[in-house]
Amino acid sequence: MDFRSVYSADHLARMLVATGAKSGPLHHRLSTGIAELIDRGELPPLAVLPAERALADALLVSRTTVVTAYHALRESGRLQRRRGSGTWVSAATPGSKRETVSGSELAGDHLASSFLNGPLATVDFANAALPSLDLVADVSAGLTGADYRALAMDHHGYHPRGLPTLRERIAAWYSAAGTPTAPDEVLVTSGAQQALELIARGCLHPGDGVVVEEPTYRGALEAFSRQGSRISSVPVDRDGLDTDELDRVLAGGRSTRLVYVQAAANNPTGAVCSENRRRRLVAAVKRSEAVLIDDTSLMGTTFRGDPPPPLLTGAGDRVITVGSMSKLFWGGLRLGWLRAPSRVISRLAQVKGGTDLGTSLVSQEIARRLFDHIDDAAAERRKGLDAGFATLTDLLADHLPDWTWAEPRAGASLWVRLPQGDATHLAQVALRFGLALLPGAVFSAEGRTDDHTRLPYALPPHVLQEGVLRLARAWRAYTDGGLREMSLTTAVT
Q1: CATH code, 146-373
Q2: pTM of the model
Q3: Which residues contact 13 (CB under 8 A, 6 or more apart)?
């Protein structure tokens, strides 16, 4: 039989987190979750599922629970089983060998999972998106009919490089910050994620080496992985990327095409790269043939100390900077950009033009006006993030005193180390308490950070309180045992 995908127990466990909390007996919860993954196409036809015992261990349930769930899925026609060959997802139709939509990147857990399918649980700690600032609505409401007519005067409305007036504004912002920039060195994108996808598609061939931070932004890992890259990791501490280790990796004899960093603020740790590390990072890249990708998406979220410079400079034409409006203003704008030498921008604009012919002009006009409010937005974010951080850490100190973390300087999340166990298993327990939790393994190219989890603090205080209370109950259940047949209803009550 031609199986396309084989899923480990931990991989399937992470995917099941994205199906959200379910009620009822565990076997029903499990079969319903797997059925959703199959029906949505996230578990494709002929995909091999883990053995019953392995999945039971990953989900902290009894083997009988998995056997019962698999049996129900076979009865519904979603699974097939053959002694000695394991269990796999049924073909879409008898004799079918391929779905209509069946790209390899569709399989598995991914960045968009927590947004595609609605709230995952009563309390959602699985994403760290920031709420919109009021000034976004105020500025948007300021657009008049004359403003829309002015945009429409361009008869076709297609600008793959971006609205010229916005590119001029972004260039002026960088220039005012001390790095002269021309509009033709700016490419507007539909968010930072699209910017990373364009870089991956435009710069990488299968087998190319990419160095990333560990932990790092999972969307970058997904973009590079889809191009068949060979990904290596370098640890991050409170001062940013470990540049000594980066030197060793770059000198290791295997060529590196890209070095991806988040010098302004690391997602998920909130670490800000120190000035010394910034200099050493640039020097290390200059000695190699790599291209440096500086993702500044969290720029403007610094709430401890002075904000860092907006750019890594000194590496000549081998630096591509990613920027975004999502964290500072609002993700719903779907507005990001790339800053790079004009020739690089021209090549990446060709890639973007073949994808969407340009980002929404209305969002771009709103973004252009929001650039006049960057300082006010950063001050408001600083106040809100500082308060949220204090609330979350006070709650953790009261209810989970053995959990530890390095204090972030920026960002919207706390990177927490578990005293024992792993976050993939804990996330399954948390769902039984109505709490969606993201395993730390998704922030590592090799899944090596599952002794951590990311906790968001840009949430209302009452949500943080309820979430930590549920997390503490889940942690006690996880560490005390006795979970194997606990239903969601029993756990929450």
Answers
A1: 3.40.640.10
A2: 0.86
A3: 55, 58, 59, 424, 425, 427, 428
